[in-house]
Records
---
Amino acid sequence: MGSFANEPRPALTHRLADAHDAGEIARLYVEGWQHLLAEHQVPMLPAGTRVDDHERRWRSDLLNRSSRSGAMLALADHHAVGLCAWRPASDGDGEAELIGFHLEKAYRGHHEGRRLLDATYTAIRAMGYSTVVVWMWFSALEVRRYLERHGFRASGERRGIEIGQPLHEVRLSRPLIEDLPF
């Protein structure tokens, strides 16, 4: 996409992804991983981060609505430029876990990430979830601060993972019902 420095920027549109979008979801998901890995100088993609592998998985999940997984796409002129994806949290009851949040660089810094998150929260609430969580690298301070500005709080839980090097993750959560005490 071209530069928008001197051009008015129309807001992106958002829509819930379906099985036909599996290729775009996979592309954006892997781009997000590649960006994160490069930023943290991790030398390789983890197993299972090939676009075609993710495309098959997403198509299957989106065809099977009982999977309670989903993805919200951010679109510019009908072209997917952002993604917020979730699945049932493996470590919580009634919680959705964000597993992908990526917006192409040209669209950052104009409140589009917030709009994408808001559209995602609406979809996740409609699926019956009460809380959204995310496990994120402790060293991903910029993204962590961004999410904290938008209502996420560290739960105190931490875990270690290995992706070419040892990394530590912290769990953040956010209630989806506005009047719930945090």
---
Amino acid sequence: MKFLCDQMLCGLGKWLRAAGYDTEIATPGIDDRQLLNWAKDEARIVLSCDGRLPCGRDAFVPEPVILSTNRIEPAVRELTRRLHINWLRRSFTRCLKDNTKLRLATREEAAHAPRCSRELPGPMMTCPSCQRLYWPGSHYRRMKGKLEAFAASSTG
């Protein structure tokens, strides 16, 4: 599944990226027709809280998923229930900033990370698009815990 979050759901979009889902986030000011055309062109499911979003047979398939809230935890539960999202399957495989698939960092790229980060166990990843580095530090552990909580709350 590939997603396109409207601006109201940009926070949810970042968590979907953290879970490894190909998720674009609309820029502020994009109008509904542009949003729907973008989704159609890239075969993305639109996620929105806008109940007035135009949809129907002439818009595109699949229809947008209209969530009842933009608050993260309730939106996560609702989206998981409706689309069976697996929050742990491919976690931390996409750039949180630009949605690009991450790859293992080279030694040269890893050398730009703080020394304490280079000494951590686990792979250091990089975004080939923006060159941002990712490593399994404290922020990663907090985010992983949150994804685990999302997964647990959706099963119980």
